[in-house]
Amino acid sequence: MKAIQIAIDGPASSGKSTVAKIIAKNLGYTYLDTGAMYRCATYLALKSELTKEHISMLLAELAAHPISFAKAVDGSQEVFLGDKDVTLAIRQNDVTNNVSWVSALPEIRQELVAQQQRIAASGGIVMDGRDIGTVVLPQAELKIFLIASVEERAMRRYKENQEKGIPTDLETLKEEIAARDFKDSNREVSPLKAADDAIVFDTTGVTIEEVVSFISEKANEILDK
Ligand code: DC
User: Each residue of 34-46: pLDDT tens digit?
Assistant: First the structure.
């Protein structure tokens, strides 16, 4: 059976990773959370107290601690840097609040995009991020761009953080999400932007199941062709 590439882009907490995971599972495809990779680079920068002036050292850190993914017993995804489990560490506020400057560094993007394209070369894939449809997989057969209001996205992240035991204030979260949207959309390299051939879907007030079924229908239309 033919395998396709599905690119799911959109701003922070637009529901990308939740739906991407379900769709990948249903199709038996690889799921790749590219945001986790930028978070890993940020974690390394913070751990070694590196700034944007230390790009070659940061690239060396990334080479010394390869990013990999594994499946936990409960089916959730685990993220590793070398042999260190950083699944929870990369979701902490210090990483979240620094990821915009790290992900704006062209050299870091070049390295991580190359890794993402290598992973995609091995078969059917659902990849979520900011530049998947525009830069990483411009040939993807299906491109989805998910959006949602800042209020709704802040509430989703708030609930997620509560479940993970990460202390958060809702108002602060709204401000951080709006600030991250602005930085992600206005950076020079690969800004957050829908590809011309992407389907833009507003998930405000829409359930996860509804988003999944919309994307699955589109995927099936392509697979049945
Ligand atoms: O999806 P997320 O919130 O975990 O992503 C974290 C950050 O990584 C986000 O603020 C922007 C950056 N990112 C990116 O620049 N390009 C991607 N393909 C994915 C994420």
Answer: 999 999 999 999 9
CATH of the domain at 96: 3.40.50.300
Asked if residue 212 belongs to a domain, the reply is: yes
For ligand 1, is residue 168 a contact (CB within 6 Å)? no
> Is 72's pLDDT higher than 90?
no
Give CA–CA dist 67/195, Å, rounded: 27
User: Distance (Å, rounded) from C-alpha 34 to C-alpha 112?
Assistant: 8
Q: Positive or negative, the Cα torsion across 84, 90, 92, 93?
A: positive
The answer as to whether 144 is a domain residue is yes
Query: What is the domain extent for residue 162?
Result: 5-219
pLDDT in tens, 96-143: 989 999 999 999 999 999 999 999 998 999 999 999 999 999 999 999
- Alpha carbon nearest to ligand 1 atom 5, residue: 35
Q: 116 CB less than 6 Å from ligand 1?
A: no
Q: For residue 13, is it within any domain?
A: yes
Distance 4 CA to ligand 1 centre (A): 23
Known binding-site residues for ATP equal 10-18
The tokens of 160 are what? 């997620």
Q: How many independent structural domains does the chain possess?
A: 1
Per-residue pLDDT for 225 more than 90? no
